[in-house]
Amino acid sequence: MLNPPRRPIGWLCLLPLLISCAGPALRGGAGEEAEERRIAGLEAALVALGEGVDRAEARALALTAHAVSRRLAADYRVAPPARWHNLLVQVGARERGLCYHWTEDLLRHLQPLGLRTLELHWGVAHRGSDLREHNSVVVTAAGGAFAEGLVLDPWREAGRLVWVRVREDRYPWEPLPPEAW
Question: Does residue 174 form part of some domain?
Fold first, then answer.
C-alpha cells in the first residue's frame, strides 16, 4: 500500500500561528525591555505633572499600574480587541472586562499606595451614553487640575496600559465625583 502524500503546505500555514504564540521568547527578552521602557515612560510622565511630584511615588504608581493591567487581562481572560471583549461580557461569555471594571479594579490596587504628591480620579467620557461611555483612572499632581492629568487606560489595548494627557486624548474626559465611585 502506498503512503499518502505528505502535506507540507498545511504545516506552513500553521507556522505563523505557532510563531505568534511564542512572540517575546523568540526575541530574546525584548518584551521585558519594552515593558521597562513603558514603565519608565509613565514614571517620567507622572513626574512631569508637577514640580512637587515625588519620583519614588511616581515609580511605584507606574510599576503597579502596569503590573495590575497585565494581571487583570489574564483574570478577565481578555479576548482582544477591547470592543470584542465588551461583547463577550454583554452576552455572558466573560464576567468582567468592561472599561468601568478595569477602572474599579485598577483604582482598588492604586489607592493603597497612599499617594501624597499624586491624586487618583475616576474619569468618565460621554457619561450616560449606552454605547459611548468610557471610564478610566486619571492621575493628577496633588491639587492639580483634572484637565492637566494623565489618563491610565488598560481597557483600550486589552491589558497593555495606555496613558495620555487628558487634554490630548480623543475622549472628552470629566471627573466623576468620588461619591459616585
Answer: yes
Encode pLDDT of 4-31 as tens digits: 455 444 433 433 333 333 333 333 467 8
Q: Is residue 107 classed exposed, middle or buried when 0-12, 13-18 and 19+ CB atoms within 10 A define those classes?
A: middle
> How many structural domains is the chain composed of?
1
Q: Domain residues for 52?
A: 31-180
In a domain, 9, yes or no: no
Which residue has cell 517575546?
24
Which triple of cell numbers denotes residue 3? 503512503
Q: H helices within the chain, ranges in order?
A: 8-26, 30-47, 55-76, 82-90, 99-110
Segment (H or E) for 134: strand 134-141
**Is residue 25 domain-resident?**
no
Within-domain flag for 2: no
Q: How far is CA 29 from the centre of its chain?
A: 21
